[in-house]
């Protein structure tokens, strides 16, 4: 899972390097949109975005490091958390080149091939994250509704198979709708709505019904289906929790689900918001589209390490150690 994700990121970086060398042409490239009307402030805007990306990388790497090195966290729930952190890390890597490239003035447009590649990674990783959240809801369901069989159901072999299934699902469902973009004629002005490439943007410029309907069917079969299954799992969890006689035990059981519920909301709310903006917000300012797009890309990878560090003592301890280390070195530097 890690090796394939890193290989995909390496391929995308090579394609991005090629994009920077493409000569400006309305036929060969697509103009990326930064923050319309705020061009003179790009250098200042780049500061918080750079901090966000650094936080995304450090936070998710911290989660992966703690799970890898702490034997007490070698449990199914934390294996799924490692998958989530790896997916979030790759999501950040897939967009940093274009988002910061625009703000730093390194890039204004992107070639069709690289745009398609970036679109593949963004939508593939979104599908992967949705699948991981579904797997985590299954973990919570087994832990609460069938605790005596938890260790026998979620064995290491089962977790590996679930991870492979998640990777195969994302890798096989996304390519048909993305690859077809290569063979479309883009007759409208080549201006993207965001500082990265999304399937919706390319379809809007090509205007072809088949690909649009296939994309809708893909969303229904992945994100919508996953969200429904997650909801059903929590209905069953709630039914089991309410049957517990002790109120203290009820609260304790529900507390084990707080982090996962928060991660689900952090992931799905931006997706719903961006979908609504694309579908019904054509009259809105382009700045709204840009902001919603960046929230969709950056908010889940930024928040998930924070959400899980609150509930995981080992992650909090490492975070405190890093903060102390930085403060000590800062004092030495100032002195």
UniProtKB/TrEMBL annotation:
<keyword id="KW-1133">Transmembrane helix</keyword>
<keyword id="KW-0812">Transmembrane</keyword>
<feature type="transmembrane region" description="Helical">
    <location>
        <begin position="159"/>
        <end position="179"/>
    </location>
</feature>
<keyword id="KW-0472">Membrane</keyword>
<feature type="transmembrane region" description="Helical">
    <location>
        <begin position="213"/>
        <end position="237"/>
    </location>
</feature>
<keyword id="KW-0552">Olfaction</keyword>
<keyword id="KW-0807">Transducer</keyword>
<dbReference type="InterPro" id="IPR000276">
    <property type="entry name" value="GPCR_Rhodpsn"/>
</dbReference>
<protein>
    <recommendedName>
        <fullName>Olfactory receptor</fullName>
    </recommendedName>
</protein>
<feature type="domain" description="G-protein coupled receptors family 1 profile">
    <location>
        <begin position="59"/>
        <end position="308"/>
    </location>
</feature>
<feature type="transmembrane region" description="Helical">
    <location>
        <begin position="12"/>
        <end position="35"/>
    </location>
</feature>
<keyword id="KW-1003">Cell membrane</keyword>
<dbReference type="GO" id="GO:0004930">
    <property type="term" value="F:G protein-coupled receptor activity"/>
</dbReference>
<feature type="transmembrane region" description="Helical">
    <location>
        <begin position="41"/>
        <end position="67"/>
    </location>
</feature>
<dbReference type="GO" id="GO:0004984">
    <property type="term" value="F:olfactory receptor activity"/>
</dbReference>
<feature type="transmembrane region" description="Helical">
    <location>
        <begin position="119"/>
        <end position="138"/>
    </location>
</feature>
<dbReference type="GO" id="GO:0005886">
    <property type="term" value="C:plasma membrane"/>
</dbReference>
<dbReference type="InterPro" id="IPR000725">
    <property type="entry name" value="Olfact_rcpt"/>
</dbReference>
<keyword id="KW-0716">Sensory transduction</keyword>
<feature type="transmembrane region" description="Helical">
    <location>
        <begin position="258"/>
        <end position="281"/>
    </location>
</feature>
<dbReference type="InterPro" id="IPR017452">
    <property type="entry name" value="GPCR_Rhodpsn_7TM"/>
</dbReference>
<dbReference type="Pfam" id="PF13853">
    <property type="entry name" value="7tm_4"/>
</dbReference>
<feature type="transmembrane region" description="Helical">
    <location>
        <begin position="287"/>
        <end position="310"/>
    </location>
</feature>
<dbReference type="GO" id="GO:0071396">
    <property type="term" value="P:cellular response to lipid"/>
</dbReference>
<feature type="transmembrane region" description="Helical">
    <location>
        <begin position="79"/>
        <end position="107"/>
    </location>
</feature>
<keyword id="KW-0297">G-protein coupled receptor</keyword>
<keyword id="KW-0675">Receptor</keyword>
<comment type="similarity">
    <text>Belongs to the G-protein coupled receptor 1 family.</text>
</comment>
<dbReference type="InterPro" id="IPR050402">
    <property type="entry name" value="OR51/52/56-like"/>
</dbReference>
């Amino acid at each position: 899972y890690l090796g394939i994700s890193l290989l995909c990121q390496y391929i995308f970086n090579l394609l991005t390097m090629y994009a920077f060398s493409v000569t400006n042409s309305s036929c060969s490239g697509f103009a990326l949109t930064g923050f319309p009307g705020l061009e003179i402030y790009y250098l200042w805007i780049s500061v918080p975005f750079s901090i966000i990306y650094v936080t995304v990388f450090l936070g998710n790497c911290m989660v992966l490091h703690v799970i890898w090195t702490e034997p007490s966290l070698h449990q199914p729930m934390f294996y799924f958390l490692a998958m989530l952190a790896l997916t979030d890390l790759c999501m950040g890597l897939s967009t940093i080149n274009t988002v910061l490239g625009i703000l730093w003035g390194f890039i204004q447009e992107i070639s069709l091939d690289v745009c398609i590649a970036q679109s593949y990674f963004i939508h593939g990783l979104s599908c992967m994250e949705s699948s991981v959240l579904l797997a985590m809801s299954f973990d919570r369901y087994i832990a609460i509704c069938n605790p005596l069989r938890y260790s026998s159901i979620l064995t290491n072999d089962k977790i590996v198979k679930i991870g492979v299934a998640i990777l195969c699902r994302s890798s096989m469902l996304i390519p048909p709708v993305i690859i077809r973009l290569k063979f479309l004629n883009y007759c409208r002005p080549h201006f993207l709505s965001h500082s990265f490439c999304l399937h919706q943007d390319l379809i809007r410029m090509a205007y072809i019904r088949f690909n649009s309907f296939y994309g809708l069917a893909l969303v229904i079969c992945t994100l919508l289906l996953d969200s429904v299954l997650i909801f059903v799992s929590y209905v069953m969890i709630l039914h089991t929790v309410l049957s517990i006689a002790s109120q203290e035990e009820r609260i304790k059981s529900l507390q084990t689900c707080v982090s996962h519920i928060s991660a689900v909301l952090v992931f799905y709310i931006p997706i719903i918001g961006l979908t609504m903006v694309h579908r019904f917000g054509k009259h809105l300012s382009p700045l709204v589209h840009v902001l919603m797009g960046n929230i969709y890309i950056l908010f889940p990878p930024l928040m998930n390490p924070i959400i899980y560090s609150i509930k995981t003592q080992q992650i909090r301890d490492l975070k405190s150690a890093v903060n102390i280390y930085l403060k000590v070195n800062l004092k030495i530097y100032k002195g």
